[in-house]
Specification:
This protein is elongated. With 168 residues, the protein is mainly alpha-helical. It is built from 10 helices and no strands. Helix 6 runs antiparallel to helix 7, helix 8 packs antiparallel against helix 9 and helix 9 runs antiparallel to helix 10. The mean pLDDT is 93. The protein folds into 2 domains: 73 residues, Serine Threonine Protein Phosphatase 5, Tetratricopeptide repeat (Alpha Horseshoe), CATH 1.25.40; 93 residues, Serine Threonine Protein Phosphatase 5, Tetratricopeptide repeat (Alpha Horseshoe).
Length: 168
């Protein structure tokens, strides 16, 4: 846990390489990368996989981010949703829209809540929209409109729905 605290401090300071410590920077601690590989079956090792996934994403190492996130397991509904959402975001970066869409839908459906569910439905809607799959986009936007009236991007949802209605 002490090792994890060091890594979290570096991450909060924006020092991603030091937080990961994958290059064994001249710092005498494991970093997220070392904790995840040396203690994979512990709570600290597991959460380090999540943090390492975030770090790799921020360093534009999307394949490694996906790998770390897939190895992370969470019982918490928010972290589980975020896991799949970050995997989706990473797939977007490597131009694999179908895998991104699949992960956004998983993220939205991990467990219905007012935070992550509408967010990942929104990302799925925007991705479908960008792929000119307007009916699918409309499906997700309507879900948000009906079930999540206080969603942060509610105005955007309304605008996209109007655009799609004019398009179809």
């Amino acid at each position: 846990m002490e090792e994890l605290n060091y890594a979290q401090q570096y991450l909060s300071q924006g020092e991603i390489d030091k937080a990961l410590n994958r290059k064994k920077i001249k710092i005498n601690y494991l970093g997220f990368s070392g904790i995840a590989s040396q203690f994979p079956l512990t709570k600290a090792g597991n959460i380090s996989k999540f943090y390492a996934g975030i770090c790799y994403y921020k360093l534009a190492n999307y394949k490694e981010s996906i790998k770390m996130m897939k190895s992370f397991s969470a019982k918490d509904e928010i972290l589980s949703s975020m896991k799949y959402g970050i995997i989706g975001d990473a797939f977007i970066q490597i131009k694999n829209k179908n895998e991104a869409l699949k992960n956004y839908i998983i993220a939205a459906n991990v467990r219905d809540n007012k935070i992550t569910t509408p967010l990942y439905y929104y990302k799925a809607a925007l991705l479908n929209f960008s792929m000119k799959k307007y009916k699918s986009s409309k499906f997700f936007l309507q879900k948000i409109e009906k079930k999540y009236p206080h969603f942060f991007y509610k105005k955007n949802v309304e605008k996209y729905l109007m655009f799609i209605d004019n398009k179809l």
